[in-house]
Design a protein that fits this description.
This protein has about 1150 residues and is mainly beta. About 30% of the residues are buried. The chain contains one helix and 85 strands. The strands form 20 sheets. Strands 57, 58, 59, 60, 61, 62, 63, 64 and 65 form a nine-stranded mixed beta sheet that branches. Strands 73, 75, 76, 77, 78, 80, 81 and 82 form an eight-stranded antiparallel beta sheet that branches. Strands 33, 35, 36, 37, 38, 40 and 41 form a seven-stranded antiparallel beta sheet that branches. The protein is globular and about 120 Å long. It folds into nine domains: about 80 residues, no CATH class; about 80 residues, Immunoglobulins (Immunoglobulin-like); about 110 residues, Immunoglobulin-like (Sandwich); about 100 residues, Sandwich (Immunoglobulin-like); about 130 residues, Immunoglobulin-like; about 70 residues, Sandwich (Immunoglobulin-like); about 100 residues, Immunoglobulin-like (Sandwich), CATH 2.60.40.1220; about 110 residues, Immunoglobulin-like, CATH 2.60.40; and more.
């Protein structure tokens, strides 16, 4: 199985989930399955409270990736002090709500008063527990109506209907006196997990106090499949009684302790149906029972997607991990070396991950096996002891094969956008990972929509993510229609021979795993008029020539006479710049040259000085990857080309003392006022802090620049400085030819002056986050002017040496809740103190240090004492802005209820609602929900429907009229938040059915050839063929015979999809050579799906249509059948060959 890590969270301020059911959890997807259900028990009580959300988030883990939908929320509705749901079908309208209807009752009657405008209405009465209308009044223009002769003490529902204004909601009322309505019963786990031998306890809760004699609740107790934690006599039907006057009872299920090691399991208790109560939403609960016998046992193993790791899941957490030599991994029969092993970061993780040696990765499709051999003194173990040896365990191979990411034409046809005769057309194919190539694969290039397809052969790129394919233009190639060349997908038919990427007996494999790239599909490249072909034009035979070269420090820029092919880039060492003064100084290029247009850029090994003005350039044409133009004319070797030196002075070092930072350069600087930069062109940071400061003054003299700093830099303190060169002005070399100094940065400039006592330089107090999103921990951060060490004090030592006061009152200190919050580190200049209690904006904070354990790191000089040092209070008036939490539709789809993280004050309502990826539409009305200050109701212009993908976006307006909290913090913009539906599920309908196969060029299918059909529904459908002889097919009318195309399953017996594919193979008796196949014909020419022993339904549990009267089908002469014709199994053979200059013409015995 696959174990998935989860985080369970209750909404802020809610207590629907018990604390033991929150935080980090796991769920396991069984082997061979694609999903698992995870249940979070909610607690029922008798307290009326707002509804809340329970959120489950998938954490990053081993063996899987977290998808876009990595979190989901379920809204939990409070069921206290509210009437049960109306039993009658409810339609609502924006013209009515409960405020339009006033109800009163006596022991046997209910009076209704309508408070809206004059209108003809009909009054309906529905009795609780019945789905039928109990009584009707009207139509009438009267605003009052009384229903008489009703049962005492009974729940009824009332609705008012109007032809002009629609219907109201159902409103509940009880006749006076009588017996109260049946309570709602729910169940939840008291604690989970428990250890075997400890009872699994369940809390059974009633929404109302039990009557005299108590309330007996029926339960069904079940052990997990394959588990035996519960004795047989403790399973099955059971009861628990809630005592009179009480609202809950606890039911215990004994679990059995044994000495047999086994996987964990669950015990489930489910509330049964009864006339004495109704079952709530939380009608079932489970308690996990942990086995405590014996060592962990192997459960499953899987590779990662790149074949470099194997994750092994055991039944128990692993507490001791031996050396990696105890593991043996084989793939495809070959041993894969294990170089390391690790346990997940979680302390209770049952997962061990093995890392494989580089070059020993697992390939896709290989059979992977695992063996564990225990070594003396190096046993893998859990709390129950060492793991027993095992071998030949299957490992799920999750390695992905390389796939094509994109295809593009990468060659440049030149300014006329045309490839001439002899020019090369190049196609770049980018893969999802680096690949290697054997043989000579090809990809088809089509000469316009009406032109032929030519094979571009593999040229280079093996070992990288992009392969280049090339085709040389020959006569009579051309694109006469002016639509340019394109790269089609693999297509049959005239003009498409050789289309697609064809291996031609070679192979394309992952460079890392060796996995074959088996899926070579890609999106076609459209015909591009910027890439025309005209073989009547002579090819470009003129090679690019040198124009100019410039050196700027270590950067060499060379310009040529024409645009170069950017895919041909020689090594930097092919370029050498020599100082022509005769002393032999030279610099060689490094790395790989970059090519853009007609310009080549090379980074030199070292920097030339600005004074070296007699520079010469030489280029040696290499044997591979030379500089060339698009027509493959190579740049020939050259030498002794003049190079312009634009190198500016550069910094050689820096020192700092006190408030003066001195930067030294390799040449004299221009000291004129025009060349003096403003202080804000320099930025410095202190002690590793990211906060930047500007100096207050800049002085330029000779080869130095002195900065006057805003802070005193003490002995041992380090800072970093950077210079931001302006567009004009700023530092430059001395003299008329001096070049501007480029931007630069110098790190770790240290003050190495004389000793002195370290001192406190700043102190701040603020709240910081701890294990959550809300800042909750009060931290005082002390920053000193030197690096410190401590005598490893205890908390008592700290409390004796340091005192923090808030408004004059001493606060209690406590240890940092490591590792979530920072603590003091040796060699740092920052010390953290954590306080109990709260801190409000504006309160006065001071800190006192009495000495004892803080010292300068290097010289062990003690920190000086200080008293009531002022601490900057950085607590703002309000800590957080409101955030979007969730959105849910109303049952009729006409409204969206949006919940925020805190109460909201309305403003300019820039909401947009999009449906199924369409454009966002503003809602018709927006109102705050009465009594729920954090919720707003959006009324839509058009109701949304079941199955539609609804998203909500909000744009914060630039004006002051914004959605905000009471402190004025504005709600930030958000996009495409999911809107969860509360709509009833609907059946799946067929929207299309087409024949997708393509017959040979005579439009005729021969014997054994395939006819494929695709049927599409408007939502996902689930099919199941597991029953004996089950069939699911589509009717085909071939001539006078009805045939069946069967579902293509790929070997599976069940599945879920929106499009199902069916296939029929032609037999010798099939014949329809005139009007062709008719799809799905019945007496009305409607589509017909044929089911025999199979099941087909919508994935939401509703029915799935097998017909659609709106779709009609006629016979199609493009799909004829002649089963008497044998399938073509003979390969084409060469009949003749003729040559004419550069053209070779091959003639075959049949159409290609």
């Amino acid at each position: 199985g696959l174990t998935v890590d989860l985080t369970v969270a209750d909404a802020t301020g809610s207590d629907f989930v018990a604390s033991e059911d929150e935080d980090e959890k796991t769920v396991t997807i069984a082997a061979g399955k694609t999903s698992a259900a995870y249940s979070v028990a909610t607690q029922a009580d008798s307290t009326d409270e707002p509804n809340g959300d329970v959120t489950v988030t998938v954490k990053a883990g081993t063996g899987y990736k977290v998808g876009t939908a990595g979190s989901a929320a379920v809204t939990v509705h409070d069921d206290d002090a509210s009437a049960p749901a109306a039993p009658c079908a409810a339609t609502t309208s924006s013209f009515w709500d409960e405020s339009n209807i006033a109800l009163t009752s006596t022991t046997d009657s209910i009076a209704v008063n309508v408070t809206t405008n004059d209108v003809t209405v009909t009054y309906r009465l529905c009795k609780a527990g019945s789905s039928a209308i109990h009584a009707t009044g009207g139509p009438t223009s009267s605003k009052t109506h009384t229903f008489s002769s009703l049962d005492a003490g009974t729940q009824y529902w009332v609705r008012v209907e109007s032809a002009a204004q629609g219907a109201s909601q159902w409103v509940a009322i009880r006749t006076g006196g009588g017996t109260p309505a049946a309570p709602t019963v729910t169940i939840a786990a008291v604690a989970s997990p428990v250890t075997e031998g400890t009872a699994a306890r369940f809390r059974v809760t009633s929404s109302a106090a039990a009557p005299t004699g108590g309330l007996t609740v029926d339960l069904t107790v079940a052990d997990a499949t394959g588990s035996d934690f519960v004795a047989l006599g403790d399973e099955g039907s059971k009861t628990v009684t809630i005592a009179a006057g009480h609202t809950f009872a606890v039911y215990s299920v004994a679990t059995q302790a044994d000495r047999v090691g086994e996987p964990h399991g669950t015990v489930t208790a489910t509330v049964g149906l009864s006339t004495a109560y109704t079952v709530g939403i939380a009608g079932s609960a489970a308690v996990t029972v942990r086995d405590d016998d014996g060592p962990p046992i192997f459960v499953s193993a899987t590779t990662n997607t790149v074949g470099s790791e194997v994750a092994i899941t055991f039944s128990e957490p692993i507490t001791r991990l031996p050396v990696h030599a105890v593991w043996t991994v084989t793939a495809g029969g070959a041993v894969k070396d294990v170089i390391s092993s690790r346990i997940s970061d979680r302390s209770d993780s049952p997962v061990v991950t093995l890392a494989l040696a580089p070059g020993k990765r697992i390939a896709a499709g290989q059979t992977v096996k695992l063996r564990y051999t225990r070594l003396a003194g190096a046993a893998l173990a859990g709390a129950g002891g060492p793991v027993a040896d095992f071998s030949d365990r299957n490992v799920t191979n999750a390695v992905e094969r390389p796939t094509i990411v994109s295809v593009a034409i990468v060659s440049d046809p030149g300014p006329d956008k045309t490839y001439a005769r002899g020019d090369r057309i190049r196609v770049g194919v980018t893969f999802s990972e680096a690949v290697t190539v054997t043989g000579t694969p090809t990809i088809g290039v089509k000469m316009g929509a009406n032109g032929g397809t030519k094979p571009a052969a593999y040229e280079r790129g093996s070992g990288t993510t992009m392969l280049t394919f090339a085709y040389t233009v020959v006569s009579p190639n051309g694109t006469p229609d002016g639509d340019g060349i394109g790269v089609p997908v693999q297509t049959s038919g005239a003009g498409y021979a050789g289309s697609g990427l064809l291996l031609k007996g070679g192979a394309i494999r992952s460079a890392g795993t060796g996995s074959d790239a088996t899926d070579l599909t890609y999106a076609a490249v459209a015909f591009d008029p910027n890439h025309l072909v005209d073989s009547t034009q002579a090819a470009d035979t003129t090679a690019p020539t040198f124009v100019s070269a410039v050196v700027d420090g270590r950067t060499l820029t060379v310009t040529f006479s024409e645009t170069l092919d950017p895919t041909w880039r020689p090594a930097g060492e092919q370029f050498v710049v020599t100082d022509g003064d005769g002393d032999g100084d030279h610099e060689i290029g490094e790395g790989t040259a970059s090519v853009a247009g007609a310009v080549v850029t090379v980074r030199l090994e070292n920097r030339f000085l600005p004074t070296q003005t007699n520079l010469k350039l030489a280029y040696t044409k290499p044997g591979s990857n030379p500089l060339r133009d698009a027509a493959e004319n190579d740049v020939e070797s050259f030498s002794n080309k003049a190079v312009t030196n634009n190198t500016a002075p550069g910094p050689t070092g820096a020192t700092v003392s006190g408030k003066t930072l001195t930067i030294t350069f390799d040449l004299d600087l221009d000291t004129s006022a025009a060349a003096k930069p403003a202080p804000n062109r320099f930025r410095y940071t202190r002690g590793g802090s990211p906060e930047e400061h500007n100096p207050t003054a800049v002085t330029v003299s000779g080869k130095t620049v002195k900065l006057t700093l805003r802070h005193t830099v003490t002995r041992g303190e380090e800072l970093s400085v950077r210079y931001i060169a302006p567009a004009s002005g700023g530092l430059r070399g001395a003299g008329t030819s001096g070049h501007p100094v480029r931007s630069f940065a110098i790190d770790r400039v240290r003050n190495d002056t004389t000793k002195r006592l370290p001192r406190l330089s700043s102190a701040i107090a603020h709240f910081v986050r701890h294990l959550g999103d809300t800042p909750t921990i009060l931290e005082v951060k002390l920053t000193f002017d030197a690096l410190l060490r401590t005598d490893s004090p205890t908390l008592n030592d700290v409390e004796e040496a340091i005192e923090v006061k808030v408004d004059g009152a001493t606060r209690t200190l406590f240890d940092a809740p490591a590792p979530a919050l920072p603590a003091f580190l040796e060699g740092n200049n920052t010390y953290f103190i954590y306080l109990t209690g709260s801190l409000a904006h504006g309160q006065v904070v001071t800190v006192t240090y009495r000495g004892g354990y803080l010292h300068r790191l290097a010289e062990n000089i003690p920190l000086g004492h200080f008293t009531d040092y002022p601490v900057e209070n950085k607590v703002p008036p309000d800590l957080t802005a409101p955030e979007f939490k969730s959105a849910t539709t109303s049952p009729d789809g006409k409204k969206i209820f949006v919940t925020f993280s805190e109460p909201i004050l309305g403003g300019q309502a820039n909401f947009k609602v999009s449906v199924d990826g369409g454009a966002g539409v503003a809602p018709e009305f927006i109102h705050a929900v009465t009594g729920e200050p954090a919720k707003f109701r959006l009324t839509l212009k058009t109701a949304v429907k079941d199955g539609q993908d609804v998203k909500l976006s909000y744009t914060k307006p630039s004006s002051t009229s914004r959605f905000r909290d009471v402190a004025g913090n504005a709600l930030e913009s958000f996009e495409n938040k999911p809107v969860f539906e509360a709509l009833p599920d609907t059946a799946a309908s067929i929207v299309s059915a087409v024949i997708t196969s393509v017959p040979r060029s005579d439009d005729t299918y021969r014997k054994v050839e395939k006819i494929d059909v695709a049927v599409t529904w408007d939502k996902d459908v689930t099919w199941d063929l597991s029953a004996a002889n089950a069939k699911l097919g589509v009717r085909l009318q071939i001539g006078t015979d009805a045939k069946r195309a069967d579902l293509v399953t790929g070997g599976a017996t069940s599945g879920t999809a929106r499009v199902l594919r069916f296939r029929y193979r032609v037999v010798s008796t099939d014949s329809d050579t005139t009007d062709g196949i008719q799809l799905g014909r019945d007496n009305n020419s409607n589509l017909v799906l044929l089911k025999s022993g199979a099941t087909l339904q919508a994935a939401n549990g509703q029915s799935a249509a097998t017909n659609n009267a709106a779709l009609t089908f006629a016979a199609d002469a493009k799909h004829k059948v002649d089963g008497s014709l044998a399938a073509d199994t003979a390969a084409p053979t060469l009949s003749s060959a003729a040559g004419d200059g550069a053209t070779l013409t091959l003639t075959y015995n049949e159409r290609l």
